[in-house]
Protein 1
Amino acid sequence: MYRILLLCLLISGTLHAQKVIIPGSVSEKKIQLLIKKMSIQEKVSLLHANSKFYVSGIPRLGIPEWALSDGPHGVRAEINRHDWGYSGWTTDSATCFPPGTALAASWNPKLAFERGIVLGEEARFRKKDVLLGPGINIIRSPLCGRNFEYLSEDPFLIAAMTVPYIKALQSKDVAASVKHYLANNEEDNRVKVDVTMSERALHEIYLPGFKAAIEEGGALTVMAAYNKFRGDWCSESEYLDRQILRKELGFNGVLMTDWNAAHSTVKAALAGLDLEMGTDIKDYNEWYFADPLIQAVKEGKVPMSVVDEKVSNVLRVMMKTKMLGDKTRTQGSMNTPEHQKAAYNSAAEAVVLLQNQDKLLPLDFSKLKSITVIGDNATRKHTSGGLSSEIKPLYEVTPLEALTKKFGNNVKINFVQGYKKQSAFKEGSNIGQSDTKKVDWKLIDEAVEAAKKSDVAIIFGGLNHDFDTESFDKQDMKLPYGQETLIAEVAKVNPRTIVVIIAGSPLELSGVVYRVPSILWAWYGGMEAGNAVTDVLSGIVNPSGKMPFTLPVVLEQSPAHALGNYPGRDLKVNYEEGILVGYRWFDTKKIVPQFPFGYGLSYTTFELSGMGTDKAVYGKEDVVHVKFTIKNSGPCFGAEVVQLYMSQPVCSVMRPAKELKGFEKVFLQPGETKTLDIPVKVADLAFYDEIRKGWTVEPGDFLFHLGTSSGDIRQTVKIAVR
Ligand code: BGC
């Protein structure tokens, strides 16, 4: 069903897409008629919350209350109206997907679409109208606490996953809220920090995800970030909100604040903010967009037309999500087998095989007598962590549970703790991270003893949501709790040691790669985490995930840290690395990371050949068709993500060594061959010209690089643009 829907929506490409407002259209007329009937008090009641996640309706005009909910990878459990406690419902356990980085690691836009459908159905079942996601900020620093929720360091990959997610979600009559607009790239001081970046970095790196979400995905709402941008709060930045969002991107939906991120009435109103959420003032009438807005209108500081524009935006979103009396609105469903299958698919396709010496993986469990499973992450459930993206899942399968259920009858499975989570995350401080370096030799000795006697040792390590969390950044990029020592000691006694990393942001692996033969990166896998990783370990699923971010050898290799621009100084941070974010930096500066962007192995092998383009010389309006053949030359069914990068060696401005311009995830049986075509518009080869204040394709030679990661380019072809 999903596939057919996907096809229809992707082909039509226009569902809910932002369109120029046609003033005389039936819906716009209806909006204007409704506005005419409203008092100023009624208008303003639509522009601020009446509780944590609801906005008042106007029953006499048939306008219902508006229900918003987190979050990006599952519909969050019901929160009390007037405080942050959970309501304790028994009907709000939800399907929980792996978070954003895992979605991006699948490099499969169809999975983003499936996720959108499920989230839409579950949101509607819970009678929600707006889902607060996806979170698509650029992964700029390996330390950002929210990297796990975001998608990638690369804007093209972000856009490719975001658009189908939003289209699918909104096809279920639920508005997406793409967040956090803009540059919420660090969590420490997120509510104070002032970000400065070049126009080029803004347009080439930080904006494209939002642009695609709005122009192609048709996102109906946008959430402004907590931080400042060039001196103005994002919720009241005339440049970001009026000039770029409304004028350049043509956004005519609702721009809301993040929770408790409103700072003014007049400035925010004039800049284009529509909806105030989460302000920490008890009396809702005292919020910036409540009585003070009425007062500002009376005093002539905010014209009524500005208020009407905001009300129009709200009503437009309500209309597009069929809230205004449309009987065909999606009713939704919860926790269906299809939903759970989608969560499983997403977790299984996300797993990245980083290393596999001597083909230790997949494990043939029929030939094993005993395995030792080690590590806190073998038994830890993660879905209820991370703060606003936390989910109350219907269930969550841990790796140990899945391994025991699937193979426990034939293989002796020994669990030993190995390392322990050393202190709990305490809200209001990141003290949880300060005491995490202790090496617990007693636990290590136990693990070593058990591993000695087993055919294979599997260490489930990595992080948890004390580190990958909203509000705080990680303090470093190291494996906590003495895991490196644990891994080294276990590997000494059992050469068949596999490390499975559970984490959503970059980690230093130099202490692991030389010690063990096999490493899997399994992310936080959502409710199906254990099943997915077990199926990859056993070869039922052939890993096909690829890293959505670069894994540096050490933190200091990565651009913001190399240049000393994280976290900034005196609450100001300048993104001095400009467009050289992620692999753009590593490749341009010729720095070899631990594992490059786009990297991931398979249990089979693939051959790329026959790369070519349909022409040698192109005009600026043309589309380049990059053709190639791919063959599964190995022993089993599998998928390769073929990545197409571009460079322009000679140009009047600096261009990165590589920029992702296309990719295709190809599934092939052993021996099977496919010839494929990745189209790239010449217009998309442009750079943002700061002098002309626009996109420019500078004529000359361009190189297309075809490969299986940014570090493994197999073929290159030159074209010219005249
Ligand atoms: C987060 C948002 C979230 C909101 C509501 C904020 O703290 O930054 O992403 O949607 O809370 O829970």
Protein 2
Amino acid sequence: MDAGNLLNLKNQALAVISEAETKKELSELKVKFLGRKGEVNQLLKNLSDLDPDQKAQTGRLLNEAKTAITQALRQKTLKLSPAPRDWLDVTAPGKTFPSGHLHPITQAIEEVSRIFERLGFTRVRYPEVDWDWYVFEALNMPEDHPARDEWETIFIDAEENKKMGKMVLTTHTSNGQVREMERAGKTLPGKTPIRMLNIGKCYRRQQDRTHTVMFHQFEGLVVDRHIGIPDLKGTLNHFAREFYGPKARSRIRPFNFRFTEPSFEVDFSCVHCLGRGCRFCKSGWHEVGGAGLVHPNVLKAGGLNPKVYSGFAFGWGIERCYTLKPGLNLDDIRLLYSSNLEFLNQF
Ligand code: PHE
């Protein structure tokens, strides 16, 4: 055995290892070259026949060959192995995780809040299950008054309170008017005018394409000295422009509410024809809700002197005014509460 043989053996081994295509082939090659009866060991056995000088030199070469073959086998095995699980390719494009978004009505509530907060209104919340007193009686609607029929009320099966009457699911956010006067009235004299924005859930016994049993209203209430209709008109126009676009306008028409005097219905110009009249709106306007100057009896119920203070109030449904936005020609508002992701994902 000489150095040339050894070199041949090493090169031959490295060549066949690099050409191996399966792990099975590799393990066969391992036995063939490095196994107990393998080629390297065969040569090792012959070492004892050599003289000491040759013995040392050949031994070293044999060890080198053994190391080279072992390494080649290991590398090739790695190449043929599938990537381990925790392997990380930092250049791979990232995985995007599905992300949700706020419900369209929550988005509308936030937008409405922002518009009024910039005018100095403070958002408040009042009970969604409230006494008859705050929902009707204190708003100048005594028991058995026919005006109450407008609000298709759902009553709670609970004990009646002597002063406050029955408990109801709030039919409108106007229940916040007298509650806010009671809260703020103590600081009112001279100092803090009321600029309330009450947004809450309302409930009425009505369900069709334009009504859901549960819906949301927002209610504005401003009380101070010398508040009049121009203040109301300015506020409504400001809201129209901010919510529907710079060309939008508001319009008020005489109406009757027991808790405002005078009372109005509020319309916004149609976003498609800007008030000229089109297929979508017919008249050029969309009716959204009610407004008026706070009735003296309501101020009194809230503990304020109507000779000193006056105010305006307005209120209507978030769903209604949201679905009038440009591009949102929703013909069935029940869809908003259908939990249908295919529908909701569009917003
Ligand atoms: N609460 C009335 C409704 O639900 C709207 C309204 C609010 C009217 C404030 C006048 C003043 O229809």
Protein 3
Amino acid sequence: MKEVTVPDIGNYAGVEIIEIAVKPGSVVKKEDTLITLETEKATMDVPSPLEGVVREVKVKVGDKVSQGSLIVLIEENEQQAEVQATVQEEKVAPQPVVQVATTVAPSQPNAAPAIQTQTVTVPDTGGANEITVIEVAVKVGDDIAFDSTLITLESEKASMDIPSPYAGVVESVLVKVGDKVSMGTPIVVMKARMENAPASQPQASAEIPAPAKAPELAPSKAPTPAPVAAAVTMDASLAHAGPATRRLARELGVDLGKVAGSGHKNRILTTDIHTYVKTALQTLQQGGGGGGLAIEKAPEVDFSQFGAIEVKPLNRIKKWTAKNLHRNWVTIPHVTQFDEADIGELEQFRQENKQAADEMGVKLTPLIFIMKAVVSGLKAFPQFNASLAANGNDLVYKKYFHLGIAVDTPNGLVVPVVRDIDNKGLFEIAKELGEISAKAREGKLKPAEMTGSSMSISSLGGIGGTAFTPIINAPDVAILGVSKAQIKPIYMKDAFVPRKMLPLSLSYDHRVIDGAEAARFLVHVVEQLQDIRKLLL
Ligand code: CAO
């Protein structure tokens, strides 16, 4: 087991760890990144000095480390043991340090006029030459603050922002992405506001860790526009980005692992972060993910131009219902199956028992029989008594039989739940429905009385209509719409006979229920209603 410590990082101490690239069990090769450190002006990957398996990680993101701080314990590969002694020595050897001056020798600031043309050059790079420009953060006309990043340089193991030694306006930019620069290479010409420059300008004032190796001389390549990264997903800690970009990503809460880099070697640039955020916002405004509905906002209309109007706010229930119905309508793939039940016998039975019901103070409407028939359907077709689990992969089968019943109230639509219908008789159900719908109309329902349904029923039979397409009351997977029963001529035994037909509309969630299952379910409900002996069993 070998201890790996932080190598020479120049004059820095207490440098923050911003990423940890390994965990216990990670197999690492020599030069693989273990952790990334970040100072105000640079990030540096600390490479593994040996090959083996990480057994313990001794640091965490946010820790402050200095040269010699213990990072990880690595169990070295047997075959590497022999060469390791040399390798270990080499890897912990002090690394070259890039000296980055915060300014490039402006001449006599005290005597200078308020605005002065200045050429900013690459400061002391600690001997490293031909370092690649991977990002140019300014353009002609930019009014920049003192110390803001002008360009970013990158070598194999470190990237560094070159800050502006002045506040002022950029007159010309003398380098482009892919250029190779060394100490003294002119970067920009600026109209500098000299009063903002620090008194200590001429002296080098910052050191940043230099590349572990000489910078790679990659061919120059202009950045291409960043494709937005819907399809790009990687570990943010592996993302290839400089300190300024990482800082910006942190500020905006952008996961770098999701951003496609358009820079050299797919490096993520600040412009990529801006493009990512812009596209994400546009997508949101258009109504969702990549496959979003892109619904245009309805135009605002001034109705008063057509005649007299009165504006009244929607009440709380209507606002709440509107949100739920809209969500359910757009998120559930609805299909509606229609059928009719011959309720001649049912009506006869109902009329025979009406007086008894009246005496008990309950209303024995067709809905009570329909509730019983639906519960029979739920028992025969358990997939209707189910809800999609939040993970989208499982179906939760319910062993209880509670029905949500849509009730029209002066304040809007509410859906109280009548429970354990399978264990209750017709009169008992009628009594409960009467009580709970009265409570609904008085606005006295508690939230608990409106949750936990197996399925729902929306009955407009007392009002009229031949059919409608009810919206599923999620998380249910189906809802039965009931329209007004009518006497119709039905062809039976070689003749048309007048029969009372009850129209039924079954909307179902097609993700959970197939069309054939829906048709069978509705046929089953119809059969129950047509032969009420079955209902009473
Ligand atoms: N066909 C013919 N007549 C019907 C019928 C049908 N399908 N359903 C009910 N009726 C009759 C009843 O028998 C009753 O007549 P009688 O008094 O002569 O017996 C009359 O219509 C009124 O019934 P009701 O509406 O008071 O009772 P119900 O049990 O049918 O319904 C309830 C109760 C609470 C569901 C209902 O009052 C209600 O609020 N319905 C509206 C639901 C709604 O708004 N749905 C839309 C949701 S989507 O916007």
